Amino acid sequence: MTRTVSSGASNAMSKMDEPLKRGSNDIGCYFEEAKAKKKQKARHEEEVREEVRVIVQEDAEIEGQKTKQQDSIVIQLMESSSALMVENPEPKSEDHQESMDLDPSTSLPSSAPLKKYDVFLSFRGADSRKDFLSHLHHELRYVRGLQTFMDDKELELGAPIYPSLLKAIEESNFAIVVLSKDYAQSAWCLEELTKICECMKDNNRIIPLFYHVEPTDVRYQKCSFRDAFTNHVKNGWHSSEQLQRWKKALETVANFSGCNAKDYKTEREVVEAIVESVCGRVRPIGIESIISSRDFGDFEVFEATREAMDNVMKALEDENVTIIGVYGMPGIGKTTMVEHVGVEAQKKGLFRQVTRAVISQKPNLWKIQGRLASMLGVTLRGADEFERACELMSMIRRRERILIILDDIWTKRELSDIGIPGPKELKSRNSKLLLTTRNKDVCDSMHCQPRIPIDILTEQDSWKLFEKNTGKSFEQTTKFYRVARKVARECAGLPLALKAVAKALGNKDLDQWRGACKRLKASKTPYPEDKGDVFKSIKLSYDYLETNDSKSCFLLCCLFPEDYDIQIEDLLKYGIGKGLFQESDMQEARAAVHSVVQSLKDSNLLLDGKMDRGCVRMHDVIRDVGFSISLSKDGHRQFYVRAGWELEDWPTIDAHEYYTAISLMRNKIPELPEVLEFPELQILLLQSNSMNKILDSSFKHLTALRVLDISETSISLLPSSSNLLTSLHTLYLDGCLSMESNISILGQLKELKILSMREFPREKLPKEIGELTKLRMLDFTSESVGIVPCNVIGNLSKLEELYMQCNFVDWGSKVEGSEVKGSVVEESKAVGAGEETTALFDELTSLLHLRILKVFMSDAKCMHVNVRRKLKWINFDICISGDPSIRKQHLDSSSSLDYARALTVDITMDTLQKWFIDAVTKRTEKLQYIKCQDLGNILMEYDWGRLHKLKHLSVIGPNEKLKELMNTTIWIQNEPVFQNLEELHLVEVNCLKELCVGELPNESLCKLRLLKVTGCHKLMNALLQSNLLQRLQNLEILICEEMDVLEYVFACEVFDAEQITLRKLTEMRLENLVNLIKIWNGPAPHAVFHHVKILVVSGCFKLKYLFTSEVAQCLHELEDLRVEVCQRLERVIEASEETVNNKIVFPKLKILALKQLPKLTRFYGSTGSGTNDEENIEFPLLEHSHVERCNSFKSPAKDMLVSVMKKQLVLIPMQESDRRETPTLSRRR
Fold this sequence. Notes:
- The chain is about 30% helix and about 15% strand.
- It is an alpha/beta fold.
- Among the domains are: about 115-280, Rossmann fold, CATH 3.40.50; about 305-455, Rossmann fold (3-Layer(aba) Sandwich), CATH 3.40.50.300; about 475-485 and about 510-515 and about 535-580 and about 585-630, Arc Repressor Mutant, subunit A, CATH 1.10.10.10; about 630-660 and about 665-750, Leucine-rich repeat, LRR (right-handed beta-alpha superhelix) (Alpha-Beta Horseshoe), CATH 3.80.10.10; about 1020-1190.
- The strands form ten sheets. The chain has a 21-stranded parallel β-sheet.
- Strand 12 and strand 13 (about 615) form a beta hairpin.
- The longest helix has 24 residues, at about 40-65.
């Protein structure tokens, strides 16, 4: 059963196919059905309510499962103004499961924060609200499932713009600006547009639609836009500054790549073009890129796997099959196999989208639903799992050809509970469900049509995999070979066991191999269903770990939820608390834990994290074995783990068990029991629960407790008794304490070594912390803390790591009008209230053991202290700025995580003291100048700061003095400069005219691999000239964007040309260079771009061609070529009379996109040439092509590209240029 849109909406949409010949005043007649609605919002809500009703009714008809409970919920939904449109935020969820969309289109960077809305619609209601916009909104919101904000209120004359509108803009990923005839007549529209341009600084986030107006009318305020501003001036309601901001916003939006309604025959075509453009940009990361980002290099198709894969592919191709089940023993490779099948099915064109969710033994429906919904590019808004299931089911019903993979199902699951339609509906949409399980009975209960087993490997394949993972080869005539074959046979053909045992024994001697063989034969398992093969193999790998720390760290990983990204830093801090990693200092302990983690990964006992390189994961089978290993010799359980089970009450735990660790993290437990009777308990992990207090009696018997984590709970009161928690070594309080907390107990925890209290809510740091004289690590990173009392930090004589990036920046200042009572700062109204002094900076410099420091300060004056010893700050992240916005951005970003030593300043190096130069700047790896008005010549900074180890340099404007980045004529250099610099970012340096004046010494910039220049609008002539090009021979990535006057990217003298090779340049992005005439000024060396793989050119309005044929013939490595919105581009490759008949082959080109090139006539040729360029151009490996709005492109080459385009499922939109995060405060478009 398939639902369609209402007849009214359908009729109105069909009228959009009529020609656009009458202009905007006559469009209303095409949309009578839409106009019949009283209010737009009421129509939307009614459609959604009807969807919810139909979803439940259809589920009942198809699955026979309608209940009175569902009826009552639907009634409640209908009465609450459409539950699918509520704007309540989702509960906090740790959904780290990636979406599996194989669409090759680009999307927002993965690092982009989650926004409430996908799209914000900006429009003039009088022009288009009730006709065109209603259908655009319907297509985006209800057909494509994008969260779309469309205001339904008509603002009264003189009323201020609604704050909710401004907030909605901030919470949107993209904006569609419908520039209609009277758009500029509305001051609110213009204010809205200004806010959009301010918030959406990243590329490709603003999409203008020129609705019966010309782009030039908008850009230069002509015609109706000129009249509108005339009226604004006459009425005198708005200041000249405000009018200028509006004009600038119109100019900015008109320069974006957009859509002109006049280029399309019907309004339906306009809507489709806009919707496709938006959907291509908001689409999430695909399964193929996720798989390629993981370590799947070990995946091999053996005989058993090949048979299963072939059977699955046949089932996927069979139109009569809807649900497919794959079953096999744990560790057999089911998950890896179906992921690769998903990729292959997408490549073969069987499905438009593929998504995967892990069900696991204790399913979290909220997370599963969120993961499956993300493939549609939306965020579920339902308040509970039932509402989210309704939303998800509605979305899946609207799509076709979706492959849904449900991995690791333990028992029968109702698809409707998740939000997946039943088999009949899936079949009607040409969609399929593929599930994996350990048990064939699950396949039966889920009505799988083919039930496909994965068998164990044959002995020959087992030996092949085993030998590969040992890292050695065995001669068949040796004893070693015979023993190794016996060991391999004991692994019973299980890939997981084969790899684990092989890596454990790889470098061992013959006697150890013989011992391992005997142990494998004698080993028994507590899991009868796996016949012992998995358990004994993994247990052997564990036994062969060389140190107790390795074994203990392995068991620590079992305390985290299944399939969870485990922070290595948490393993370090928990481990130190438990007594592991007893190295001499924190740095050595950190090195030890990283070494241990690597050995566990090498032994196949841990996996890389999914999303974060500082994380690891544990396979669920290995985790189960870990629990068995943790049993004591007398059979008592040492671990009690119910992490991520969504428990709503404290579980019943057998007090007779001698538990040493209890992990109940990530549940919904509201309170602790009155008494916890676990005298042996050392580790208690309760983070991310709902509990709000800890009773003294709860901890009365926990005398051995060494590690406590209550982060992200609602706990406001700690135990007040002085004899509790005194054995603690590690305490996590991140984001859990309130202003009322009785934090005086902190001073009593004398054994504490690790204290983390990020997001501490008070303005003043408690004085009691100064009593923790054994503390080795302290973290109070927080926006709230603004006062650090004197001598608190200075008393922590053993402190090795201090993380205090907060609002405390004025070191050694007076705190007036406050009295300190215990740990609570009370404002005093009494005249002559006492004064106190905040911490002095020399408290930091006096800490003999301090090795890691993250700190803010307002200026360099607070560092005017006498430092008489050599500081040993190994890692640091220091921000010196009087601008709170710079500090806040630094606190919110993770831009310094890639570098151990980072410095951010708005001052120059000559203002810093010598001790600071020695301790910090000469060892800095990443340096950011932000709004540094006194910065005049970066070479002077290099000398003053002795920046010899610098790897990353960012200069972020505005700046009024830096006209030349490097000038050797006024600051002579005899030695190489920036020899270790790898990345150079220049952002909005508004006065910069040239990058380099004069000659740099040899070996300068010799390691620079990335150059990004953005928004430097006064850069003129060529970006890279011969004096700089000669030094950039290791440049790999060049990104140049948002320039007003730049005419060339490269330029060099004739006699220098052949010395320039750029032999490592692989990626080049040139975007919004409105005055660019040529990429290379002068004779370009033929092989200069020989290694370029990715080339993106967009918004270069004066460019007539990209390369000459001589250069193009050397583009042997080019794989991805995208050209967009170049208004004067006539040819991609320019041929001379001598070369016009030469054949050009792009041997590796896979992706070619040509978009909005109105003057493009041919791909390859010369002016006046009649040569058939199809005969002289070849793309032997072309997989994807996209030709759009190239109306003059009539050559046979176009037919060839279009024929390729018709064979692919999805067109390829332009990629976003900002592949690498660049810190920026504001960006002029």
